[in-house]
Amino acid sequence: MQEYELAIGGTWRPAASGATYETVNPFTGKAWARVPDAGAADVDVAVRAARVALDGEWGATTGFGRAALMRRLADIVERDAEKLAVVETTDNGKLLRETRQQTAGLAAWLRYFAGLADKLHGETIPSSNPDYFVYTREEPAGVVAAIVPWNSPLSLLHWKLAPALAAGCTLVVKPSESTPTSALEYARLFEEAGFPPGVLNVVTGQSAELGKALVDHPGVDKIAFTGSPVVGAAIAASAGARLTPVLLELGGKSAQVVLPDADLEAAANGIIAGIFAAGGQTCIAGSRLVVHRDVRDQLLGRIVDRAKTIRLGDPLLPDTEMGPLANQRQLDIVLGFIERAIAAGATVVSGGRRDPDLGGLFVEPTILADVAGDAEIAQKEVFGPVLTVLDVGSEDEAVAVANNTEFSLGAGLWTSDVGRAHRVAARLRAGTVWVNSYRAVAPNVPFGGSGASGWGRENGRHAVDEFLHTKAVWIDTAGRTRDPFVLG
Ligand code: NAD
Fold it and tell me: Cα(300) to centroid of ligand 1, in Å?
C-alpha cells in the first residue's frame, strides 16, 4: 500500500485531523494507496500558504523567472511521465496507452505557457488630456482554487495550472476523491523544479465538504473548475455569493454529424474513438451519432462490427482497448441510463449490459437506436460507453438535431465537401468542431463551451487572461493643483 501526505506550503503533512482514506484500483477492485482525508482546517492552511507565496518570493519572481521554472518543471515531468501515467491508470482505470500520451503531453502545456509568461506586459494608452501619462499593468489574479475530476486528472490540472503559473498566480489544487494520487506525485516534481514553497498546494479528501470549504474560503481569488454541470452550478452559486470569479469546464453531449458524402470508413473509426476510447468517460465524448438516413445502415454496420471486437481488460496491458469504468458510482449511473433508455423504447444495437465475462466495473460498448431527440438518453450526459443514434434526412435537420441540447462543448462533422464543412461548422453550436477528425486538443487551441458546458475557455493564448487582472495607472505629469470639483 502506497502512503501519501498533503503538499502544503513546501511541506508534507497528514490531514490536521489525522484522517486518511484508501483509493481503489478500479480494475482489481483493491485499495492500493492511502491518502490524507483533508478538511476545512487543511484548506485554510493551504490557502494561507498560497497567499504567503504570492505576497513573497513568487510574487517577486519576474515573468522570465517563472518561465525558467516552468521549463525546468516540464523537463522533470517529461522524465517521470511514465510513472505518472501508471499512477493515473491505477487510480482511474483509463488505458495506460492513453494516460501515457496525456502525461507525456503535460510538458507541452508548461512550455507553451512558459513562452507567454515573459510576454505579459501592459500598454501605454494616449490620454485625451495631455497632462496624463496612462499605462496598464498585468497582475496575477491571486490565489487560484483548481478543482478537477477523475477522468484526466493531470491533463485537466495543466489546463489551469500552466496559464495560472505563467500569470504569476499560486494554486490550491483539489483532485477528485477517486484519483487523489497523481496530483500528490506531481507536487514532488514541482518541489524538485525549485518553485518557492506555497506556489502549489494539494489537498486530498473524500468528502464533498473539502471542495466546498475551498470554494467558500475568503482567501481564494479565482476558482477554476472542471467537472459535472450539477457541481459546477453549485460552485457558481456559492462563488457568486462571495463574488469570486469562476472558470467552468463542464459536461457535454457532443454530436457526431455524418452526412451522405462522408468517408464512412474514416467516420466509423472517428465515432468509435469519440465514444469508446476512455470508455466514454470524457467530457467531449461523441455520444450522439446524428446520421443521414442515406448512409445510416452502412455506417452503423461498420461501427457495430468494430464495437463488438473492442478488447476489454486490464488497462495496463498494451492490447486492451477499453478499461473499466472509474468507480462503482459511475457504473450505477451508466447502467441506470441504459436501463431507462431501453424501458423508454430504445433498440439495443450492440452491448447494453455489464460485461458478462469480466463483471466488475466493465460495461459493454453500447449502441442504442430508435431514440427520440428529446429522450433522456439523447439529452443527458452518460459519461460512459453509450452511443445514441439519431437519424436525419437533410443537412438542415442534422444541424437542428445536433444543436438540440443544453450542452455545447464539441461536435464532429464528417463530410468530403469542403464548402459544406465550413458551412456546417459555422452552424454547429459547439466550442470545438472537429471536421473529419475527433478528440484533438492542444495547448495553443482554445477549448470550452457555453450553457451547460461551462463558462470561459481554457488553452490558447487568451487562457492566461483568465488569471490576470489589468491595472490602469494614471500619472499626472503637469504637477499643478486641480479644481477638486472637476472630474479628471
Ligand atoms: P464532479 O462534478 O462530481 O466532481 C468534480 C470535482 O469537484 C471533484 O474533485 C469533486 O470532488 C469536486 N466536488 C464535488 N462536489 C463539490 C462541491 N460541492 N464543491 C466543490 N467541489 C466539489 O465530476 P466527476 O464525476 O469527477 O467528473 C465527471 C464530470 O466532469 C462530467 O460531467 C464531465 O463531462 C466533466 N468533465 C468536463 C471536462 C471539460 O473540460 N469540460 C473534462 C473532463 C470532465
Answer: 32
- Ligand 1 contacts CB of residue 174 (under 6 A): yes
Nearest atom in ligand 1 to 330's CA: 25
pTM reported for the whole predicted model: 0.95
Q: Is there an atom of ligand 1 within 6 Å of 253 CB?
A: no
Q: Do residues 363 and 333 touch, judged by C-beta distance below 8 A? A: no
CB atoms within 10 A of CB 456: 18
pLDDT 10s digits, 412-464: 999 999 999 999 999 999 999 999 999 999 999 999 999 999 999 999 999 99
Q: Which residues are known catalytic residues?
A: 249, 283
Q: Is the CB of 156 under 6 A from ligand 1?
A: yes
CA of 141 to the centre of ligand 1 (A): 23
pLDDT tens profile 24-77: 999 999 999 999 999 999 999 999 999 999 999 999 999 999 999 999 999 999
- Structural domains of the chain in order of their starting residue, each with its CATH number: 2-249+458-473 (3.40.605.10), 255-435 (3.40.309.10)
